[in-house]
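User: tokens in, sequence out, please.
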């Protein structure tokens, strides 16, 4: 420890944070270092590049120096588990995933994993190698490992809730398009990954221009990681903590540490984990649509029995064809296509169950994934055709496409009914 750092530590207390420069006794690193002293504890933040062999070596060198008694890394429990058990995604209970409404989240995670694998295949470096090095070195030197990043699923949900509804489709299509592209990952994309993680690289095009996106993706996570450090490694618990995080988070996280943090960080941290509830109007919308459609049927029958049956038939055909046809795109089993065709018109009038749930359930019953599907899942989804080849990912596609087809069918049929009743007569 240098003389300057010793004096900082002696004069600081738990209510103040003193920024210091990295000690000259540390080995030279390729990434930036910044040390913040709070009370009896120093936090040395190492800014890393997520696609860099040098950053992984920086972590190994620093932890081998013996200067630290704890390690904190920019990972959440889910990503740490995925790193420790690469097949964890494929071992999930798919039926439970669909029942809990997590199919979209799992598909997005698989797509991001495919993007990560393409980066690794092209560059020869596995993204997050420095985090893996930190985990290995912490275990090797028997150091406590602190996971301080927010759960990736929570971040995705807060992004979804925070952006206006009209931007959600462009974000989703941008995510899927970037990770499923057959083209090689550009040097520019790899450079983006050197300062942020895959989420940041994928959404960087939008984040720079959207405060609604930048806040949950970057700013909230900076604050969250500082709060987790104050919670899991408060002043006095450890003497010197190495904090390994992307270079893009170094400035924001260190500024929060240098400022006064709340005496009880748990409350604010939990508020950053909460998923904003949908608006009351958005929750009521499915029931409102159901009421309007049923009212339309009633008006049609009151005017003319033939008109009423015509509206029912159009509702049935439009919903069934669009939802069932969407499952054909996913190469669903013929029985699944037929079941979806008949289920979609009914589930569209019952907000408690969706056509996607029925479609995926039938597909799982007929084509239950085999052991090899789970074991090869991560590799299969790195190619576009692999999403249709693997039974696990194909079932996810069946669920998503059936759901989208049913949603489109509901709106198309709804406008068709409205036009027949209040617009020009239906031929």
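Assistant: Sequence out:
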């Amino acid at each position: 420890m240098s003389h300057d750092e010793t004096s900082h530590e002696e004069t600081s207390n738990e209510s103040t944070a003193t920024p210091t420069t990295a000690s000259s006794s540390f080995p030279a690193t390729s990434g930036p270092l910044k040390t913040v002293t709070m009370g009896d504890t120093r936090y040395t933040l190492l800014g890393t590049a997520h696609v860099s062999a040098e950053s992984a070596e920086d972590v190994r060198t620093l932890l081998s120096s013996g200067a630290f008694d704890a390690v904190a890394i920019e990972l959440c429990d889910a990503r740490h588990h995925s790193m420790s058990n690469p097949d964890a995604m494929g071992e999930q209970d798919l039926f439970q995933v669909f029942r809990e409404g997590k199919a979209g989240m799992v598909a997005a995670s698989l797509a991001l994993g495919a993007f990560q694998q393409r980066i690794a295949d092209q560059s020869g470096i596995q993204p997050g190698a420095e985090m893996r090095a930190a985990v290995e070195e912490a275990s090797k030197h028997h150091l406590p490992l602190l996971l301080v990043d927010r759960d990736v699923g929570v971040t995705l949900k807060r992004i979804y809730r925070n952006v206006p509804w009209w931007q959600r489709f462009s974000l989703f299509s941008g995510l899927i398009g970037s990770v499923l592209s057959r083209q090689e990952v550009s040097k520019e994309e790899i450079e983006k990954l050197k300062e942020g993680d895959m989420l940041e690289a994928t959404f960087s095009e939008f984040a720079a221009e959207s405060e609604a996106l930048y806040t949950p993706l970057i700013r909230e996570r900076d604050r969250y990681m500082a709060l987790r450090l104050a919670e899991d490694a408060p002043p006095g618990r450890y003497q010197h903590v190495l904090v390994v995080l992307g270079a893009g988070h170094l400035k924001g996280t260190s500024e929060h540490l240098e400022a006064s943090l709340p005496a009880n960080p748990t409350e604010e941290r939990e508020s950053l984990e909460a998923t904003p509830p949908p608006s009351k109007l958005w929750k009521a919308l499915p029931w409102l649509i159901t009421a309007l459609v049923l009212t339309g049927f009633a008006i049609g029958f009151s005017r003319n029995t033939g008109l009423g049956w015509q509206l029912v038939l159009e509702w049935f055909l439009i919903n069934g064809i669009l939802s069932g046809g969407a499952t054909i795109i996913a190469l669903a089993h013929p029985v699944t296509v037929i079941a979806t065709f008949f289920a979609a018109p009914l589930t569209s009038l019952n907000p408690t169950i969706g056509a996607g749930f029925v479609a995926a359930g039938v597909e799982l019953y007929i084509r239950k994934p085999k052991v090899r599907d789970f074991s090869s899942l991560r590799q299969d989804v790195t190619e576009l055709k692999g999403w249709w080849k693997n039974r696990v990912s194909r079932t996810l596609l069946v669920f998503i496409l059936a759901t989208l087809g049913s949603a489109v069918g509901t709106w198309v049929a709804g406008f068709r009914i409205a036009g027949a009743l209040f617009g020009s007569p239906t031929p």
